[in-house]
Specification:
The structure is a homodimer.
Chain A lengths: L4 E5 L3 H10 L5 E6 L3 E3 L4 H5 L9 E3 H5 L5 E5 L2 E5 L4 E4 L2 E4 L2 E4 L3 E3 L5 H6 L1 E2 L3 H20 L3 H7 L1 E5 L3 H21 L9 E5 L11 H13 L3 E3 L4 E4 L3 E4 L4 E3 L2 E4 L3 E3 L16 E2 L5 E2 L2 E6 L4 E2 L1 E2 L2 E2 L4 H19 L14 E6 L2 E6 L2 E5 H14 L3 H17 L16
Helix pairs in contact in A: 1-9, 5-6
Chain lengths: 417, 417
């Protein structure tokens, strides 16, 4: 393989796997991300619910790149891709490429609900989780000083939109935070009156999983006193109240949106046709039609397989990243890979302590076995040995002592220099 | 003891000890802080040098207060003390008191150097450490993309003002971060040309410790390639250059100020005479002249003993906090304590791996034994068992693998809601 320059944009699940596979293959490998760390997004909700420190779910990219021969990293944001010239426009200048792997991920999709977007919290970036954690804890501190019972209740009401894995996991983690931890922290508050409301537009939770698991999840969440509203939609919000499609009003100081994602804004800048959610349709080998040197992976890619579009999940991104890397290596050796084939290894979601659901290879798990499987898989996929230990330590602490240590309200200060 | 209300302002080293001593004594104990956590300031420099996550040196106040019978906590900022009316004006309203323990700590003292204050980083609050860590790592990322060698060097030049424990410890931690960790992260940079310059106005380092230890520290830092400038002062800065008293200019992108502290701004609002640094002179029992129900502890208090003013350190604050609590309990029982007597248990500073200095009870330690003593004492005084484990884990990691995991550049986002 001649010294071709392969540029990977986005060090998420796909980008990291692609870089690993290309390392040492003889190419000039340039990694680009606007953060200097890889984020383990599936545990973001645990940072937001004061269970984990943000550092434990992030791994510095340079710490990984050290071990990848031929790889360099540039911290910058890509603004546009010039497909004809084969170069990227970035905040730090133009970057030419021979091959490009685009895996910039996704952004939250508010589906045009302006007031919701303005007032809702979302959970995509590391800082979102810290901002949301601060907001939740601050709400309880404000509730202590609030003389009006109605306003106090609204400060302790949390509406979560979206009954997918993130919404379910965050709702469970939040009600446990309130009932197990904050109940002890705030003896002066009637924390049992705190409300966690999960709003789902469809008639069931976890639509991507078998129906029985959705039913189990619904029962389990309700037994934990999460209020689950099915067939309901949030249409308006103002920071104090959340309005549903039927006009019902929930007085709530906090609204969390996990009801949809769309391709990252970078996808829009590409002069190619787009599919739903701004995603980019790709060829069976994940390349861009007419631009065989450009591969699109992960949440940005739109690919139908067996009659369904591949979901925007970490396993899809990982498999796509590895495939794109191998396709480049094969092409440089004059070979060609068979088309990309996603292998569904199943999916899982945790609901609370000792309770999760998992489905894989036609099998279904629920309750304790699923929870244990969830826990082990997440520790396994987390990058960085120290991170694994810190995360396990936090989980053990919580399991034994019902204590979440990271309930800090951090301040944010901008430096003028 | 009748149900008297004791209000403690500031949950630093003094406030926490006072609260512990007063818990269960039958008083109505109200704890006030503008943060919801106690900060272990002595390790702040390790957060700034990417060695520790910020969460591991902070302990939620409510987690401690749970264990203190009769104690409540209010998250608010005290704006003024009305000594005559015996009440506090705070962001959340008026708070009356029968006894008051004022331990709001200190703020950085720039001694009127406006441009320095504007451009320098300081290390007092938790967010300062994260902001400084982000800035240092960002400087290296910018250096990678900087074509001009002079500007690249300036990006990799760090001027630290103040040869006390904080300045010494931070200089050592920073040069080790550069030489042990970042040198591997940035193979494209000549990191050995990075400069860490420690500027001290006096003719020696660690003025509060015996002279031999200051000499050892100077030699050790220089052997680690820290540039130590004695008898030198920083008088001006603009974010790109630092100007010394003799007109010498150091092109440096980063200036860290640890050359002085003064009493927290709250001290100014008290209608009493002030001493140097805005500190408040106290009676031998730490009470305010004319206001025997008000005690001032820690950095805010100005008390001479054996011909010298007590230093603004954690041990002084801890002993004062305990004394103030006991004085209140004694007074309620109709007794009186003998005057406050500070017991100097010594002081210590760590320079780098296996190297520290300590002096206690007339003994002097240096090198490995001092470093081990420093390490054990800091873990001992850190609050929170989980925090101790996480800190130890980070130190072991660093010691064995020369790896500092927490080198993230976090973003800061304000939520509009």
């Amino acid at each position: 393989m001649q010294k071709k320059r392969v540029v990977i944009v986005g060090m998420g699940f796909g980008g990291v796997r692609a870089a690993r596979a290309l390392a040492g293959s003889g190419c000039d490998l340039l990694l680009i991300d606007r953060n200097n760390f890889h984020l383990f997004q599936p545990l973001l909700y645990q940072v937001a619910s004061a269970g984990l420190e943000q550092e434990s779910i992030a791994q510095p990219i340079r710490a990984m790149a050290r071990q990848w021969p031929g790889a360099r990293f540039t911290l910058t944001e890509v603004r546009a891709v010039d497909l004809a010239k084969r170069e990227l426009q970035t905040d730090t200048g133009c970057i030419p490429y021979d091959y490009l792997i685009l895996g910039a991920g996704s952004a939250t999709n508010f589906f045009g609900l302006g007031t919701v977007q303005q007032h809702a919290f979302d959970l995509k970036e590391l800082e979102d989780a810290e901002v949301l954690r601060n907001h939740i804890l601050q709400a309880f501190e404000r509730a202590v000083c609030e003389p009006d019972p109605a306003r106090r209740r609204a400060l302790m009401t949390f509406v979560i939109v979206g009954g997918g894995p993130t919404g379910v996991e965050f709702a469970g983690a939040l009600i446990e935070l309130v009932n197990f931890v904050l109940a002890k922290d705030y003896p002066e508050l009637a924390t049992h009156t705190a409300r966690v409301v999960l709003v789902e537009a469809m008639d069931r939770l976890l639509a991507a999983m078998p129906e029985q698991l959705g039913m189990y999840t619904l029962k389990k969440l309700r037994s934990m006193s999460v209020e689950v509203l099915l067939n309901a939609q949030v249409v308006d919000a103002d920071g104090e109240r959340v309005v549903l499609h039927d006009g019902a009003v929930i007085p709530a100081h906090t609204l969390v949106w996990s009801a949809g994602v769309k391709a990252a804004p970078l996808a829009e800048t590409l002069a190619v046709p787009h599919a739903r959610g701004g995603r980019i349709p790709v060829e069976p080998d994940l390349s861009l039609a007419g631009y065989p040197e450009v591969f699109v992976t992960g949440d940005m890619a739109w690919l139908e397989q067996e009659g369904a579009v591949l979901p925007m999940t970490a396993p899809v991104a990982m498999q796509m990243g590895i495939y794109a890397a191998r396709a480049i290596i094969a092409r440089e050796q004059g070979n060609q890979l068979p088309p990309f084939q996603y292998r569904d290894k199943g999916s899982m979601a945790t609901i609370g302590k000792n309770a999760a659901v998992a489905s894989a290879f036609g099998m279904q798990l629920r309750g304790y076995p699923a929870w244990l499987a969830w826990l082990m898989l997440h520790v396994y996929y987390l990058i960085g040995f120290r991170n694994r230990i810190v995360v396990l330590l936090n989980w053990i602490w919580y399991y034994w002592f019902h204590e979440r240590q990271v309930r800090l309200i951090t301040r944010r200060k901008q430096h003028e220099a």
